[in-house]
Design a protein that fits this description.
Elements lengths: L1 H5 L24 E2 L7 E6 L4 E4 L11 E2 L6 E6 L5 E5 L3 E5 L6 E3 L2 H4 L3 E8 L2 E7 L15 E7 L4 E7 L9 E8 L4 E9 L2 E11 L15 E6 L1 H8 L2 E2 L5 H6 L9 E7 L6 E5 L6 E7 L3 E6 L3 E6 L13 E4 L7 E9 L2 E10 L2 E11 H6 L2
Parallel strand pairs: 1-23, 17-19, 18-20
Antiparallel strand pairs: 2-3, 2-26, 4-26, 5-6, 6-7, 7-8, 9-10, 10-11, 11-12, 13-14, 14-15, 15-16, 18-19, 20-21, 21-22, 22-23, 24-25, 25-26
């Protein structure tokens, strides 16, 4: 069975990671998925939709653009109901309902000239941010009525603007450069440019009502805004030492050697903004993403090395609840794996081609974990 090739003993984990990190894995240390097989499918993004392809490098060539302006998966998480949501910059949302054929939810007016990000959940509802990046997009028009917080209705499969710049008392020359939601309050950094001089200020804000019930522009009185400082904001987004990570995550990755540098983004399913952890990172740590759900925990590194512990929805425990690891299909040079979700039996992982801060081709990989773990 394939499972017997995937399950590994503790001591073999010491050299698993490869790619961006300093250590190199041996060929037979962990099960390596083939680039082409029946247990997974490749998809790429076009300008207006997505389509299947046999390999990422065979997808249509895209000119390299700054990551803020390119079509790429910019965030992902699992909803409280177990549905997978991938937020795609300049395109929309991919919504997975235990299938590897997602619904693409689009709104051209919202997404066309704004940078999407920061997928979070509040009272079970998914929200994300839209900003207009003045550094990379000189033609992007800004106004105080610009939408900032958008709600995705899972029931209606529609987007609803919730909070606009004027609700946050952001001036015409202001630009939100970062937003963090801790489950209670929202924190934003605001950049202002006047007479070629740039300054930053930081705000803490919240809604006096359930955000799912408010509309932007005309209900600014429902939003409370207060000043905060750079230190308070930085403390939220600065990585902590991995020793402070949640116990289930530390257990999942406990056999990674202490001298392996990585920077990990950790999300709770149906949760708030992610937490960040580093393990000896200086300048060249391997990037990784993790999601902690009630019945499983999973981490995917940029080279495709994947750790999983628990049970898929509707399936029994894998390897009696002990950690298993495998590598996703190898990507070409300058390609990497990014955010992921698990919905039903499918693991869905974003991939992209990058050159420093620019992105070219991009898409996602779907893996049938039932075939991978339960069928030989």
């Amino acid at each position: 069975m394939k499972l017997s090739r995937i399950i590994f003993s503790i001591f073999t984990l010491c050299l698993l990671l490869s790619g961006c990190g300093k250590k190199t894995a041996q060929k037979d240390e962990v099960f390596q998925m083939e680039q082409k097989s029946s247990d997974h499918r490749w998809f790429y993004f076009g300008e207006e939709t997505y389509a299947e392809v046999d390999l990422p490098q065979h997808s249509p060539i895209h000119s390299l653009k700054p990551w803020t302006e390119s079509v790429r998966v910019c965030d992902g998480n699992v909803s409280p109901a177990g549905k997978g949501i991938l937020l795609v910059n300049h395109l929309g949302v991919l919504y997975f309902e235990a299938s590897d054929n997602p619904l693409l939810i689009q709104d051209y007016q919202l997404f066309s000239d704004s940078t999407a990000g920061n997928l979070v959940f509040d009272n079970g509802n998914p929200y994300f941010t839209l900003v207009k990046n003045s550094f990379f997009n000189k033609t992007s028009s800004k106004s105080k009525s610009q939408n900032h917080i958008i709600r995705l209705s899972e029931a209606q499969k529609l987007f609803f603007p919730v909070v606009a710049y004027n609700d946050l008392h952001i001036e015409y020359n202001g630009e939100v450069t970062g937003t963090y939601f801790d489950g209670s309050d929202w924190f934003s950094s605001v950049k202002s440019t006047q007479n070629d001089r740039v300054s930053f200020r930081y705000i803490k804000w919240n809604s006096l009502m359930d955000m799912a019930t408010i509309q932007p522009f005309s209900h600014s009185e429902s939003i409370t805004v207060a000043k905060t400082n750079e230190s308070a904001y930085r403390n939220l987004v600065t990585p902590q030492d991995f020793s402070k990570a949640p116990p289930r995550l530390k257990l999942l990755l406990k056999s990674i050697p202490n001298d392996f540098n990585f920077l990990l983004t950790c999300r709770d399913f149906g949760g708030t903004s992610p937490r960040y952890y580093d393990n000896g990172v200086e300048d060249d740590g391997t990037a990784a993403n993790a999601i902690i759900k009630d019945n499983w925990v999973c981490a995917v590194f940029s080279d495709g090395t994947t750790y999983f512990c628990g049970a898929l929805d509707g399936f029994p425990l894998i390897n009696q609840g002990k950690t298993v690891a495998f590598r996703l299909p190898k990507l070409p040079l300058r390609y990497s794996y990014q955010s992921f979700i698990i919905s039903g039996k499918y693991l869905v992982v974003a991939w992209e081609e990058s050159d420093f801060y620019k992105t070219g081709r991009s898409g996602f990989l779907t893996v049938d974990m039932e075939k991978l773990f339960y069928k030989g």
